[in-house]
Amino acid sequence: MKKVFSFILVALISSAVSLGTFMWLNDNEPNHNTAIPEPAVKANAWPAAFSPATSQAIETDFTKAAEEVVNGVVHIKSTKMPDQQSRSFSGNPFFDQFFGGQGYSQQPRVGMGSGVIITKDGYIVTNNHVIQESDELEVTLNDNRTFNAKVIGTDEATDLALLKIEADNLPIVKMGDSDKLKVGEWVLAVGNPFQLNSTVTAGIVSAKARNVGMSGNNMGIESYIQTDAAVNPGNSGGALVNTKGELVGINTALLSETGNYVGYSFAVPSSIVAKVVSDLKQYGNVQRAMLGIRISDINEQLAKEKNLTTKEGVYIGVVEERGAAMDAGLKEGDVIIGINGIKIKNMGILQEQISRYRPGDKITVEYIRDGKSNKKDITLRNYKGNTEIIKGSGIEILGAAFKELSDNDRREYGLRSGVQVDGIKDGKFREAGIRNGFIILRINDNSVNSAKDVEKIYNNIMKGQSPEKVMFIAGIYPNGKSGYYAVNLTD
């Protein structure tokens, strides 16, 4: 800070010396009895380049946008209670053998984040990582009213979640159009960093369609808006708005070795947020359209190795069997350069464009093959390889929905069987500590491959004569970590 102050002081002194010298030279200039013209810029007037009429981008007033947004951004407190499975079954020899005698913490784990009210009747969008694994969610409004929130749905791929509180006539943040954002445009980040409620910071859009590999999920969709607006722990799930106060993104992450802001922050664009929210409200899970390809960005090395004629676009490395791309005739080595007339420069832009559609939607793909540009009309499919809408099936008491693993998932995780938990709400699974994304391999020593298998085992347990109604579940998470749970089905 001292160095910065010294620099400013030196700059001011230098400016003063220069100005004084200029004035002395003017005062001492020989008079040739010629008329001195009126100065082009009078005292206290703005230079033309900085006149108020031409400097709106420099003198942006953020007060109106801030006033409109702060009341629509909430503080979220998530609480994870001590492991219920260990507390319920500890001391049971079979349980100890099944779970390896794992201990558990007596203290609840508390996390803080932000959320954005998007409807007057209490729908709130936030980050999935803000509410993940939580047993209790408490939402505090800017006027200090507090509500319990329930989870409507989550989407790990975009790190978004939709909550609901029971309230009416709430202040909202209007949905904006992130497609219209331009690099260099002013934006505001509104949230609750370090539990400092209703904090507003300003910055510019530094980049768009940024893919930085932070999701840690092979199915993750990254097409972030990068800004230099200060975002810190607690800002996650808060609003990124334009100067009109319109929501253009959900603040999600920052790149930092310390965990605090160092100049780079990232937000999920509102174009993705709107689609995810719509799907979660309508279907309970996201209807994800897929091309059925594995892709990579093009760099100098890849372009030389594959003898490509372009360095912009997305290179197709693998075309999946039974996928939309294979059906349409796309091949390994093709380079996608456009979707429905939108130029595709990198993976982030491609992912963002495809994420707007649902299975069954048709798109026009422009691609380069052997140096020539081609176009194909493609009907997008779901992970099962068809165009059906997939609704999360589940048993009400379990509080979970399930989806079957695709062939790609099985290869990726090295599995022959399994069904994935695709949405967690209040219920027995959450009580047992099962988290969204968990892949169930066996229940009570029975192999599991579908939601019907889970339902069948559940029904057999409930119809059985044994008074102990328990599901002993074994499986893994996508990161490879094993999980073992005992789900007590009795009230």
Short note summarizing the structure:
By secondary structure, the chain is an alpha+beta fold. It is built from twelve helices and 25 strands. It is globular.
Structure description:
The chain is α+β, with helices and mostly antiparallel strands and 491 residues long. The protein folds into 4 domains: 74-164, Beta Barrel (Thrombin, subunit H), CATH 2.40.10; 178-283, Thrombin, subunit H; 293-379, Pdz3 Domain; 396-488, Pdz3 Domain (Roll). The chain contains 12 helices and 25 strands. A 7-stranded antiparallel sheet has the order 5-4-1-2-3-7-6. A 6-stranded antiparallel β-barrel has the order 8-9-10-13-12-11. The longest helix is centred in the N-terminal third of the chain and has 26 residues, at 2-27. The model is unreliable at 1-58 and 84-104 (pLDDT under 50).
Fill in the keyword field for this structure.
491 residues, alpha+beta, Thrombin, subunit H, Pdz3 Domain, 4 domains, seven-stranded antiparallel sheet, globular, disordered N terminus
